[in-house]
Write a structure and sequence with these properties.
31% helix, globular, binds magnesium ion, Rossmann fold
Amino acid sequence: MARKAAFLDRDGTLNDERGLHYVHRVRDFHWIDGAREAIHKLNEAGFLVIVVTNQAGIARGLYTADDVNRLHDAVQKDLEDLGAQVDAFYISPYHVKGIVPEFAVRHEDRKPGTGLFERAMREHDIDPALSFMVGDKASDLIPAEKLGMKTVLVLTGQGENHKETPAADIVVTGIAAAADWIVEHDAS
Ligand SMILES: [Mg+2]
């Protein structure tokens, strides 16, 4: 039977960038209050937790996929203490203005493209009708809406600039409230 999933944006949704762009060092990753507990709540409610993140810094030559994977290992380790986990991370390394030739292309994996979502759905047998996306930008929600998921805009990160987006089913203060809303609207 197809699974339900909670797709989560990373920067501005799980971590507070504090004005930094292109966060890729472990020491620059700062959890938003309640984010770890929110992931735990989604785990406990039976959702696959999938992080989908645009990392244009890879195309721009600022850091590599290995750096991002190392950061995500540290994120996972932080969650372990709580008995929580991210089930999978999906990264888009592309940006059309990049300098690393293989990634300097327009690509459907870069949100608002649907590529990362579709790959996750295939690889984890996810039913979009039972699934949700949480993000701080319209570009996070547009692909999820297109695929038939419910969408939550958080007001952390860039959220204040995107709160009027028609792609949001609901606007909430942050990831903790988003997890509450998702569990309340679980259709499985
Ligand atoms: Mg974001």
